[in-house]
Predict the structure.
Amino acid sequence: MIGRAICYVLCLLLLPLSLARAEVAEIRLGKQFGLGYLPMIVIEHRRLIETNAKAAGLGDVKVQWLQHSGPAVQLDALIAGQLDFIGPGVPTLATIWDRTVGTPGEVRALSAMQSMPYVLITRNPQVKTIADFTDADKIALPAVKLTGHALALEMAAAKLWGDAAYDKLDKIAISRSHADAYAAVVSGISEINSHFASSPFYYYLLAKPGMTKVLHSYEVLGGKHTNGVLVGTKAFHDANPKLCAVVMAAFNEANAFIKANPRAAAEIYLAATKDKEPLDSLEKMVSDPEVEYTTTPVNVMTFVNFMHKVGRLKKKPDSWKDLFFPEAHGLSGS
């Protein structure tokens, strides 16, 4: 009996220590290419997760960053447990939420990463609006039917030709990374003559002679919209609440840094990506008033409502909050 009592007391004494160590000591985040991932690049450079983790009493948390060229690979890695957070667009979040909500593998978003437009650009001199595209044209975007770019193109088609023809341009859409799409369009010889681009690639394209802006996603959605969201599994979130709060704090800190120090943020981006763009030019992109680095979700339900209307989603969330973890619920999202 004495032995049991001593064991019980020791367990009680060690319980706070075991709880303090209950959360993982390593977190793995996936990023893609482009200025949409600037907050992640700043967080990595300034070691904001590591610093905030120590301040929160989590000790030395190891942070692993992995880079991919598109959302499909990241999503597979998240579902396989090889990544803890990824940064895809809202339609990708809505799609995987629809498939996993209420299951042990449920996926939601911790926060938005930024509000940023997509811009459709072509080298075809005959194309001024989407009505001018023919079967001879090819539009590159990150993933057909899955990404915000694909949804914005379908929304624009629905507005022009009616809801029944929302997918009229899908047959000339091709999945490509932004870097590959940019290279194809500027080559002048690829069958891909148009690119529905994210930043900084639409700036690069519009600086080239013979390029025409065809469509701007803010015009399609009626204002600013979230581009990327920070997505993870409910299982990881619920098991690591302190670490998730640390990640959220790191993004808020990075966003504040970018807003206050756009030139320094541009320097960090150039150093990390080895981009050859002049610093002055990149600083202007970071400071563009059309772009806002924020954790607040914007116009999420515009994407979601359209996806449900065309049958892309079986379940329709009542609110954008259904797609996000509680950490984001106090934000003035939409």
